[in-house]
Design goal:
Structural class: alpha+beta
Oligomer: single chain
Number of helices: 4
Largest sheet: 5 strands, mixed
Radius of gyration: 24 Å
Strand content: 25-35%
Order of helices and strands: HEEEEHEEHEEHEEEE
Number of strands: 12
Helix content: 10-25%
Shape: globular
């Protein structure tokens, strides 16, 4: 083989080898093991409540959700009903974070950093009908609660998937929990599986049927 041809062959082999190494590196990056995040104790100088220090007071105990079969439904009086996987919610909607304090009727509170998607974004994608003045949240444990739809159009209310920089633990509502700002803790639905737009302004959820105020506003008594 002529020296020039031999040189070209060596050059091609070298280029191919470099390409193989580069592709292997990319594959290694894509297959990197994701390590769990570490809980943070403060955010922008504000102390946060440790997640494992929050009292567990759900109606049936923490729910264990199979994320492989999990679906979040948006249904009822909407033009475009949806069934989202967990990952589809994370991929399709903008993410936001905010420090919000949970106030429980039992007399304790917890200040936490929440990260999630806006309930209004989920609703807007499904296009609620005008008569749909009420939004009902359904949870895996059978818990339900409701809000006027205006609560979500007037405020940036989060459906959270992270708390204090960690994926929601089962005790806090994995995969999704409602961060019901300015509401008592019984309005903070956990393990949310369904969001239903309804024209039933008098709907009563689990605790509302047991005498708690339907509005759940912090500046008012929680007894109805």
């Amino acid at each position: 083989m002529a020296p020039a041809s031999l040189y070209r062959l060596i050059l091609v082999v070298a280029i191919v080898a470099v390409g193989v190494v580069y592709i292997a590196d990319l594959a290694g990056e894509r297959s990197a093991t994701h390590l769990p995040s570490t809980e943070i104790t403060a955010y922008e100088g504000q102390p946060l409540t440790p997640v494992d220090g929050i009292r567990e007071n759900s109606i049936k105990g923490p729910q264990q959700i199979d994320i492989g079969t999990y679906r979040l439904s948006v249904s009822g009086l909407v033009s475009q009903p949806e069934q989202y996987t967990y990952q589809e919610v994370l991929d399709r909607f903008p993410h936001y974070e905010k420090v919000v304090t949970l106030h429980c009727v039992e007399g304790w509170d917890a200040t936490l950093l929440w990260e999630g998607v806006l309930v209004s974004d989920l609703l807007n994608r499904s296009v609620p009908a005008d008569p749909g003045s009420t939004v009902i949240f359904q949870s895996a444990d059978g818990y339900t609660t409701s809000f006027p739809r205006s609560y979500f159009t007037d405020r940036p209310i989060l459906l959270a998937y992270r708390v204090n920089n960690m994926t929601l633990p089962a005790e806090r509502g994995y995969p999704f929990a409602l961060v019901a700002e300015e509401k008592w803790g019984y309005k903070w639905a956990r393990w949310v599986t369904g969001i239903v737009v309804s024209d039933d302004a008098g709907y009563r959820g689990y605790w509302e049927q047991r005498g708690y105020a339907p509005g759940g506003d912090l500046n008012r008594s929680f007894f109805g």
